[in-house]
Amino acid sequence: MKTGIILVTYNGWNMTKSCLEKLAGLPQDKFAIAVADNGSSDGTPQKIKENFPAVFITELKENKGFGTANNRAIRFLKNQIDFDSICLLNNDTIPEKETIVALQKDLQIWNTNHPEYQAVFSPQMQNENGTAQVAYYTNFSLQTFFTNAFRTKENADIRLHGTPIPISDRPYLKSTYYTGAVCWMMNYSLWESCKGFDENIFMYYEDTDFAWRANALGTQFFLDTRLRLPHLGGGSTDTSLKQALQHDRSQEYVFKKRWGKRGLLISKLFKYTRSGIRILISLPLIPVSAKARKNFSIHIHLFKDTLCHF
Q1: Angle between helix 290-308 and 261-282 (nearest 10)
Q2: Which terminus of the chain faces fewer neighbouring Cβ atoms within 10 Å, N or C?
Q3: Is 306 exposed, middle or buried (0-12, 13-18, 19+ CB in 10 A)?
Q4: CA–CA distance, 134 with 176 (Å, rounded to integer)
Q5: Which of 189, 206, 230 represents a domain boundary (last residue)?
């Protein structure tokens, strides 16, 4: 088995350098690395060429988003070499070589024992401080999703993430409806069957959309709890207005894609309710809390955005 490891970059050279340094020792007969650069202005493509000459680089002229960049990198790499599996990997991770090798082995064993079904394998994500990062999700209903607007983030997460279930023959592998695409190891044939990421999604929910389509084909997602992958971006709770707007608009798109007009309506009602509640909670704290003022400002804009596009 040969695996194409795919990274997407947009500036952030230092993180990319650290990630590539960790991957540099992987055997080239079993792994190849491809990077899609989304129009970085910090010289990332040239620095990769200088420091990591074995890495295949696709340079996009502008930021096309996470999904499109992955699609382009995979197509470019396939035109250069032959490989039968892919590992999508965020550039803000710190992967040990042993983790990537073990994920490849997980996929090989699965292919041997279950050739009739596809599977996606992920390691256990960790925050920078070593705490566990929850990057798996259950098959939630529209009703459950909407009622989360009335819950705290902690209670909502319980219903969205669910509890992974150990499988009988390898209990360190836990089955879940899907995992986040921080690190995905899968067969190239599955990627082709799902036609990659939907390029109408610039950022956020592209992995959810892919996972829903993969599940419809009978794909199973597994978390290998023996493996740890530090994810530097996963512990951040700071959200800009631009990010929040992009997140909400992507949610609308994928909900409509999966559930039609009903999904679009529930998405909008969820955002309308969520932001309305957050505004009311923040309002009395505005005079004494900078955090409350920021939350109030963001949710006012999100509330207006939802109304403007109703």
Answers
A1: 150
A2: C
A3: buried
A4: 12
A5: 230
Which of 230, 254, 279 lies at the terminal end of a domain, its last residue? 230
Give the C-alpha separation, 181 to 255, whole Å.
18
Q: Is 39 left (phi over 0), alpha (psi -120 to 50) or beta?
A: left
The predicted-structure confidence for 44-69, as pLDDT tens digits, reads as follows 999 999 999 999 999 999 999 999 99
Question: Do both 174 and 302 map to the same domain?
Answer: no
pLDDT surpasses 50 at 189: yes
Expressed as residue numbers, the domain containing 283 is 241-308
Q: For residue 174, list its beta bridge partners.
A: 166, 223
Single out the residue of 80, 85, 117, 125 nearest to residue 101, CA to CA.
85
What CATH number is attached to the domain comprising 199? 3.90.550.10
Q: What was the pLDDT predicted at 192?
A: 97
Model pTM?
0.92
In this predicted model, what pLDDT tens digit does every residue of 118-128 receive, in sequence order? 999 999 999 98
Mean pLDDT, range 214-224, rounded to an integer: 97
Phi-psi category of residue 82: left, alpha or beta, with phi > 0 → left and psi -120 to 50 → alpha: beta
pLDDT digits (tens, 9 = 90+) for 229-251: 999 975 444 468 888 999 999 99
Integer Cα distance of 11 and 122 in angstroms: 25
Which residue do the tokens 């230092």 mark?
14
Gap between the Cα atoms of 255 and 261, Å rounded: 9
- Does a structural domain hold residue 236? no
**pLDDT score of 149 more than 80:** yes
